[in-house]
Amino acid sequence: MSDSVESSGWIEGDTLPEDLPESPLAILGAWFEEAQRAKLTRNPNAITLATADDSGNPSARIVLCKHLDELGYLVFYTNRESRKGRELAQRPRAAAVFHLDASERQIRVVGPIVQSPDAESDAYFATRSVVSRIGAWASKQSQPIGSRDELLEQVGEAMADHGVGARSLLGDEEVSLPRPPYWGGYRLWFERVELWCGGSGRVHDRAEWARDLTPDSAGGFKPRPWAATRLQP
Ligand SMILES: Cc1cc2nc3c(=O)[nH]c(=O)nc-3n(C[C@H](O)[C@H](O)[C@H](O)COP(=O)(O)O)c2cc1C
Fold it and tell me: For the chain, which residues make up each domain, given as ranges?
């Protein structure tokens, strides 16, 4: 970099290492952890998840990233009969974006999706509040409903079906509520990762890592080594 550009103060803020590491996962994990610790936004683990239907029509929505694995996948939970669930059944691939606004960073990931093992979804479901667990039973996510009252009726029916009273709904009493069969986790495996960092009006920094993933017999993927490329911002 020329001295005059560097000393002008124009180049400020975060950058990626000059020699890009072989894998993006350590930086990705550190950025994510830092955002969770700082908690400068209400949901620092919120990600935009994009899927597409059979005809290639895209759809995107926010979900929460509940686990980032060192093998290079993230986990989110949802209703598998929702729009995203139906699209993932048709095309088991997705893209996701983390906007770590407070640290002016963006992480983009793309890759194949598999369902989380049942035991993992059961364990996570059991940690959810009673209201959230009842909600998972009551809501046919993404299906139309005539009115808000009808939805509340469905909540009432789900409470009656599972013997949940108003006191337990408020968290006063613990209840045993199984995971609905249509609700669970997905693992989005990273085939491509892009890390972006910067500051407004500055020269941002950006690089992409790509790797091949081969399905393995355990329902996951065997990764090949990453290849890194710096990109113009
Ligand atoms: C901050 C925030 C977090 C959310 N987290 C989740 C989540 O973890 N899982 C989920 O299914 N929906 C979550 N939602 C709701 C989704 O954005 C979406 O409305 C819902 O999943 C239905 O999407 P679909 O019809 O495209 O399947 C969240 C919404 C917001 C605003």
Answer: 3-123+182-230
